[in-house]
């Protein structure tokens, strides 16, 4: 006759509780129950928690109910000739605690994330193709690791993700992990995607997960180079060849409005002639959108001695800080920069720290696209700027450059003022009264 025994292995404060099913001398599978207890609160004689607290009493009830359930499932399996193994035992323990359903699909939040990671190469991406980008896969791996750290010995299920969970997890990301608001909210957005994916696969989810706030906050500190600052950068004397080359990339980037990764990949093949018009054609890595940019006179002046040679984005970010410092771009402004902290041997953490810094310290590749959009806003029609930056909506563009509805209203007012001035300047023909001489 089969017997079941609950065991504690180890003497830690959070020792795992095991269940052993003894069928015969050669078949005694053992598996973790997924429950933990302080070894001091465990009775080895009874194989149950000591009845000293209400928490221990509830744990004891759960474990005894588990034993009854496993006995029942064993008898069913035995009558049908189903093989009893450690995998069989682990599966039924997980089903009892609703970690998996009968179809063997895990209901655990960590497993739902892992499912997306495992299927990364075959999942539909934002560009409409197959395969998540490396950065998206890394984002899900990061989310999984953060949740493992957050839940500790507890094992959250997909259905545990509700409004309360969202608020508590956001506090953890902001105050314990020290993430910026934008990063923390992005993690919540990824979490909602995981829950949605799990729900589509038949896993029970809490309807409240859809109401968890994860909208990207408005940009508070917009860092861009003004036309005057770009003029200073163009005129500053640079002796170092690498710095001269980086300056050319910087000026070119602020003139073309592309992300650093796309900018630094440009070469002669991107410059083509279409119907007599010189243009730059490229496909953005992040969005997959094809962009066509006219080669203006300012662009020609920047590259009149040839295109800059290729450098890594890391070196580009490093050099443009030094260039801007030498050019006197040192206004003290609010912003955030990455600081590396060491916690233990070889354990480094990178976090963006908000503060007030000299402007040159905040320079990075993103300044190119933002400078282009900010300097041309109100000069070029907004749809034309969007064609080059590849923003999908005007709202996203305005948020990107830190403009609000008041700025938009001002742009409309300026347009009508300009039209009124033009009308005043236009000559008007007046019909004179016919006269005759007598």
What is this entry, summarized?
The protein has 438 residues and is α+β, with helices and mostly antiparallel strands. It has helices at 54-80, 86-96, 109-118, 134-151, 163-176, 181-200, 227-235, 241-256, 260-263, 297-302, 313-326, 366-376, 382-389, 394-400, 405-425, and strands spanning 3-8, 15-22, 30-37, 42-43, 48-49, 271-274, 277-283, 290-294, 332-342, 348-358.
The major sheet is characterized as: 3 strands, antiparallel
How much β-strand is present in the residues? 5-15%
Rg, alpha carbons: 32 Å
Question: Quick one: overall form?
Answer: elongated
Number of strands: 10
Largest beta sheet: strand ordering: 1-2-3
Structural class: alpha+beta
What is the N-to-C order of secondary-structure elements (H for helix, E for strand)? EEEEEHHHHHHHHHEEEHHEEHHHH
Mean pLDDT: 86
Uncertain segments are none
- Determine the fraction of residues in helical runs and give it as a percent range: 40-55%
What distance separates the N and C termini?
Answer: 139 Å
Number of helices: 15
Structural summary, described in words:
Helix 1 (54-80) packs across helix 2. This protein has helices spanning 54-80, 86-96, 109-118, 134-151, 163-176, 181-200, 227-235, 241-256, 260-263, 297-302, 313-326, 366-376, 382-389, 394-400, 405-425; strands spanning 3-8, 15-22, 30-37, 42-43, 48-49, 271-274, 277-283, 290-294, 332-342, 348-358. The protein has 15 helices and ten strands.
